[in-house]
Amino acid sequence: MVPASMSAELIAVGSELLRPGRHESNTVWLAERLERLGIPVSGRRIVGDDPARIASAVAAAVRDARVVIVTGGLGPTEDDRTREGLAGGLGKALVRDEDRLAALRDLFQRFGRPFHESQASQAELPAGAEFLENPLGTAPGIVLESDDRLVFAVPGVPAEMRRMFDEQIAPRLAGFGTPLRRRTLKVAGRTESQVDLAVADLFDLPGTESSILIGSEGIELHLGSRGSSAEQAGKRLADLERRMSERLGPDLYGRDEETLAAVVGGLLSAANRTVAVAESCTAGALAARITSEPGSSAWFRGGLIVYHDDLKLSLAGVSSELLELHGAVSPEVAEALARGARTRCAASFGIGVTGIAGPGGGTAEKPVGLVHLALDDGVAIHRRRLRQFGDRLLVRRRTVVAALDLLRRRLLGVETG
Amino acid sequence: MVPASMSAELIAVGSELLRPGRHESNTVWLAERLERLGIPVSGRRIVGDDPARIASAVAAAVRDARVVIVTGGLGPTEDDRTREGLAGGLGKALVRDEDRLAALRDLFQRFGRPFHESQASQAELPAGAEFLENPLGTAPGIVLESDDRLVFAVPGVPAEMRRMFDEQIAPRLAGFGTPLRRRTLKVAGRTESQVDLAVADLFDLPGTESSILIGSEGIELHLGSRGSSAEQAGKRLADLERRMSERLGPDLYGRDEETLAAVVGGLLSAANRTVAVAESCTAGALAARITSEPGSSAWFRGGLIVYHDDLKLSLAGVSSELLELHGAVSPEVAEALARGARTRCAASFGIGVTGIAGPGGGTAEKPVGLVHLALDDGVAIHRRRLRQFGDRLLVRRRTVVAALDLLRRRLLGVETG
Question: Counting C-beta atoms within 10 Å of the first and last residue's C-beta, which end of chain A has fewer, N or C?
Fold first, then answer.
């Protein structure tokens, strides 16, 4: 027998959650929320709509942990067996709350809907438990506090579950764990090991925890801090973030959910400038990313997709001599593409992209993954050479990120990292 | 106590799997494989690297189901406690296999690597169990057959787990379930209810099961068939697929993992034709999708991203009269864009896209989600008007799909659905 620890066990109920290809997401969300409260998750279970199996899972969970949260199976249909399973697993009788039943009937009457007898099951709960109100649906939740344990059941509808957790469960868990605060710092233009070198000594600050991850747009620093109070945790996080920011300087481009496209759009908009592109290997992916931001017509003009070499000439005005002399994948052609984008699309900035995304087309001299970027601001040209590993999708995605970062640094007036 | 059913319980072991934001994927993969064998999954559990918790999960699993598969925790480190937990949960002693130990020592010696005492744990297993060979790593798996139950443990490294399942576990499960075969049919240019209407009566064919889903590129029909043998299941599936295909006709564009971009690329390539685009609201997303296919330089020429109206004139040759008369979002401008794409990029086909992706820019007459597409094949113009609901991302994504489908139908010589 394991001594129950100050941790949480999560049980998702629903036969549909066991189907192939199905990722259960309620317990993933709950684990994230519980972590913020400083309560680690010691187990996650998915069980079908079977009262005996639910009971077995609940019994095991209350043996193992002091907090148990069950999601799903609280509706009025035949399939909804969580109330029964919960009572069974806790060794309690399932009782009917007559006040709740009357209130339910009343609710249906007020909305002019017929009350089916099956609805009455929603007024049942294990003896000694209380209801949790559901502001978004008819199925109430359940809470039972006994023997140092806190057991919750909430509906599986994500919106209902989330709101009930935040408003009714989280307050009851306050004081159980050590509050945690999190922040993600996003870094462009540096490798993982460069970021590690720059900030590694800050990983050991008391009460904090940090890790480096490779995100979809570059390197991410995931910071966390704990404290005896939310305030202390918040103060520690702010201090850690300030010190990290100083080290990272302009390589730090955003926080949490901020994207590079949004950051660049904001800078262009603030400077009242516009951008246009001439893309070869990315073939529209850079423009599509820039315009994924609502309102991007304020800063994006348009672009040229010059996949074939003759279009580099006819659409972007690259000279055939330049192409012959240096080849399509060269700094010189990238520069000419940037100029072509800026002038032909009448933008403040032009970005040129040319490279080899693979899997074919590489040579010993110009291998798959080689990309040349250029930014023309009307006065000077800013260049960048990328040498990337990975498949076609990755090479294109990283090229888009590097192009956005090149523009970001020009707008900030800082050198490319 | 639940009577053990002909189902499988899956247990993923690893404290890291309980971290917030982490989707555990081994049991999702296993559920899909087990379904093909006709064995339903009755429960999935994730537990940390704690032998007592692993034992408790295993004990519950063998109570509930006849097949139990545990993944992870079989390596040589301190954290790897699955062997211990498995023995505990099955009520067996953990014993050391001296032959296996000698073989392990031998293996390390042959590869010139030092043998640490911790490695010896990999020669341990519950009494009565046998090892499963791991062709991709050093940690062997374990299988124990007793009391009508089959309990397996395999490493958590996905490649090792998958190969061991396919080669060593699946054969042992043959005959346990009713074999299932699956196929996905992909449909473009019809709504969910149109597809439903066309094929609904085929949903009831004996031994088959089908469902309609909305996929990322359109409607998907997920077909399944069961049989007493894999052959019978396969025959039923082939028959169902043939009948569905007859009903769907040219609206059926692909199967399983096929994408619309790959299908269109194949058709263009076979016909030795090329395409170019002029995109307004999708701003490069169509071109990026077409060129996501390796080898697309054989059929994609290039394109014009004409986000601002003046570029529709200067880059694509749309006349200012046309723009003034009909507005940028109109069939006429889509047609002029298609022609501009074809002629200026010297392609066999030109596709023009203009619309309102939102969230801003809509009017009562031309609301957010209105998109006009045109395809110019050099002889005739093929048009399509879309009226979509959803956010910016969805409107753009569906527009890309509709544009690819317009070209696909032209290449097949069939009318737009």
Answer: N
For an interface test with A, which of B1, B2, B9, B18 has the most A Cβ atoms less than 10 Å from its Cβ?
B18
Show the tokens assigned to A397.
Answer: 């995605």
Which of A6, A84, A291, A301 is the best mutation test for B, with the most CBs of B within 10 A? Answer: A291
Cβ of B18 within 8 Å of Cβ of A35? The answer is: no
ipTM: 0.76
Q: At what angle do helices A51-64 and A82-90 cross, to 10 degrees?
A: 50
Chain pair A-B, CB pairs under 8 angstroms = 216
In tens digits, chain B (417 residues) has pLDDT values of 344 568 999 999 998 888 877 788 999 999 989 988 889 899 999 999 999 999 999 999 998 899 999 999 998 888 899 999 999 999 999 999 999 999 888 888 888 888 888 788 999 999 999 999 998 888 899 999 987 899 999 999 999 999 999 999 999 997 777 778 889 999 998 888 899 899 989 988 888 988 888 888 889 998 989 888 888 989 999 999 999 999 999 999 999 989 999 999 999 999 999 999 999 999 999 999 999 999 999 999 999 999 999 999 999 999 999 999 999 999 999 999 999 999 999 999 999 999 999 898 899 999 999 999 999 999 999 999 999 887 899 899 999 999 999 999 999 998 654
Q: Chain B within 8 Å of A44 (Cβ-Cβ)? A: yes
Is A32 in CB contact (< 8 Å) with chain B? yes
Is A177 in CB contact (< 8 Å) with chain B? no
Residues A368 and A356 sit within 8 Å (Cβ to Cβ): yes
- How large is the C-alpha radius of gyration of chain A? 29
Angstroms from A13 CA to nearest CA on chain B: 10
A322 CB neighbour count, 10 Å cutoff: 17
DSSP H/E element including A95: strand A94-96
Cβ atoms B210, B242 nearer than 8 A: no
Contact A345/B at CB under 8 A: yes
- What does the alpha-carbon distance between residue B68 and residue A59 come to, in Å, rounded to a whole number? 20
A346 to chain B, any CB pair closer than 8 A? The answer is: yes
